[in-house]
Every structure is written in C-alpha cells, then in structure tokens.
Amino acid sequence: MLTKRIIPCLDIKDGRTVKGIKFKNLIDAGDPVELASYYSAQGADELVFLDISATAEKRKTFASLVNEIAQKINIPFTVGGGITSVEEARRLLLAGADKVSINSAAVRNPALITELSKAFGSQCVVVAIDAKQIEGEWIVHLVGGKEPTSLRLFDWAKQVVKLGAGEILFTSMNNDGTKQGFANEALQKLSTRVNVPIIASGGAGSIQHFADTFLLGGADAALAASVFHFNEITLPNLKQKLQSQAIAIRL
User: Between these two residues, 176 and 133, which has the higher pLDDT value?
Assistant: First the structure.
C-alpha cells in the first residue's frame, strides 16, 4: 500500500512566507528557508513552494530562493508560480526543485503540460487547480483565484491527465484558510475520475481533517500551511495520530 503524504506549503510573496483566508488578507508567516529546513527535519514527506504573485506580476519565480531552500532540505520539493515554458521549468529544476507546478499557464496553454511531460517525465509535472464551488458547480479560477474561467474542475482534471500531468494539486477556494476541513466530497469524485495522485489543499484545521481527507476524500496527499506555520499541529504528532487510525504513513 502506498503511504499517504503530508506536505507543508510555503506560499511566497516578496520573499516571505504568507498565509491568507480564501486567497485574501495575507499575513506574514515567516522566513521560507527557515520553515523549509524545520519541516524537513520534522518529517514532512514533501514540500511545496508557490510564488503566489509571480503570475499576476508577470515575472519568473525566484530561482535563487529555490536554490537556497533546496540546499537545506532532503525531501522532494515542488515549485510553482509563473512557469510558462520548458526553459523556465528547467531553470527551477536545475536550482534544486524535484517537480514543477503549473496552474494559470496550463489553462492558457494546455500544450505546455505535454511539453513539460516530454521534457522531464510526467512524474515531474504537477498541475495545480484552484476551484470555487458556485451554485453547485466547481469553477476553475486563475491568477491566485482572481480570475474565473469557463472550465469545470472534473473536466479540466481529466484533460490535464490526458495531456501528461503526473499529479494534481486541488485547492478548494471555499475551504482555503477556514480550518473547517478539506473539500472531501469533491476530492472523492476527483479521485474516481483520474488515475494520478491527488493532493488535497484548503481547509486543514485539525488532525481529524487530515484523517478525513485520506479516509473519506480518497486523497493521496494532504497539503497545509497555517496549521504548521503557527505550530497549531506538529508533524510528528500528526503522523502518529494518523497511524493510530490505520492510515499508512511514513514516520
């Protein structure tokens, strides 16, 4: 049985880790290099670094910061934000990233998913999908949740897998930062519609929320930020509690 993964997320703006609620009202959460090093030592399975303002500011992700973090950790490291070409992805992989994550660029240029998959292998390509439930429909949003599209979550997820995505990072905008739990009903539907790992994001507030997204949502990994950044949940305790519920986890 494949073990479930716990993934702290570093949302980066102006070189600092930040966290908001439903993608708004960002507050400072600390130095990204220090946090990355701490999470690696605490037993995180992977780390995600998202330069959340790169797309809106039409600039590239900071490769120097990626390199600094990569030197401090010994776990897989996914980097996203403003990646629009194979060349930009290669720059970040050479800086120390293990995988790249694309979101807005994938919607605007779906062929990029295939290009990245061919260049680096599908296992290296994570497609992040930010979606908001509006009148019962999960609508895909771009540019850090600012721009709604005509795409529906489940249709888009199936399309990105066909194009070569090796993993999907699904963030529920409705749940993000609320600490009320993950969007498990949507996650369960997603997990039955695609045959790649699904990372659940948005809503973690308790240890039980992590257990529920694995047991009820069918997620392969759970990503969270503020509960880790502000020491509300520690990684060793979380993993021990999950194991006590017979969830396969790496201690």
Answer: 133
Angle formed by the axes of helices 235-244 and 32-42, nearest 10°: 40
Residue 251 lies in a domain: no
pLDDT at 28: 59
**Total Cβ atoms within 10 A of residue 189:** 16
User: What mean pLDDT value characterizes the chain?
Assistant: 90
More confident residue, 31 or 37: 37
Q: How many angstroms separate the CA atoms of 152 and 140, rounded?
A: 6
**Would you say residue 244 has pLDDT above 70?**
yes
The model's confidence at residue 23, banded by pLDDT at 50, 70 and 90, is: very low
- Amino acid, single-letter form, for residue 158: K
Among residues 107, 133, 248, the alpha carbon closest in space to that of 189 is found at: 133
Domain count, the chain: 1
Burial class (CB in 10 A: 0-12, 13-18, 19+), 237: exposed
The catalytic site residues sit at 11, 130
- Residue 63: CA count within 13 A, CB half-sphere: 13
Domain housing 48: 5-244
Does 9 reside within a domain? Answer: yes
- How far, in Å, CA of 104 to CA of 126, rounded? 12
